Amino acid sequence: MSSGPAPVTLLNPEGAAACVLLCEHASNHVPAEYRDLGLPPEELQRHIAWDIGAAALAGRLSARLDAPLLLGGVSRLVIDLNRPPGSPTSIPEVSEATPIPGNRALSASERARREAAWFAPFDAAVRRVLDARAAAGRPTVVIGVHSFTPVYLGERRPWQAGVLYACATHFAAALVAALAAEPGLLIGDNQPYRIEPEMDWTVPVHGDARGLDAALIEVRQDLLAGDAAIEAWARRLARALRTAMR
């Protein structure tokens, strides 16, 4: 595997907050041997390759909350760190409406290679953090930090942010209410996506299966353009999470 970002970067591992932050789609890195997966370089700057603005937002949020943060180090086009390995969207042949030539007709050995190189180290690091907190008796909420496109397949999305969840209904309701109380915000309740156990990993596996409150926070990426906007969202999300975790 060529040089580049580590499969996972752990920041603030001893953070005192009652939550652990994950940013599975932090990076648009494609290892050199994959030759940009056959895509023009500009395609790797799009949302299909990563969650634009999410890594910076997660870093600011980690600092404001004093929370541990795990950042993924590879593009979700190589392998998606928030999808069950082997699922159709784990290594997509088409993302949104864009064919991914370098993912067509992959062998089982290549799929296993990508899983071992990128997915497994990230997953193991999350498990270590959560196991250590459980052993120490520390309360933990699992939060994935994401961004979404203003328009998807021609459909405009009206929400400024959304909260995605499955089992953690009480926590999610409190988080949605706290964000909706902010002036001028329309917050998606399991919008613009829904958690599906066969298609998602972070919430079902690292949260629900452990009996931990877990949710993904999605912020519309056009609202994360620039440092001031990212800082404003970090402040807003920190306030809402503190309220919801009480």
Automatic annotation (TrEMBL):
Keywords: Hydrolase
Pfam families linked: FGase
Molecular-function GO term, any one: hydrolase activity
Coiled coil region boundaries: none
InterPro entries the record matches: N-FG_amidohydro, UCP029730
Listed name of the protein: N-formylglutamate amidohydrolase
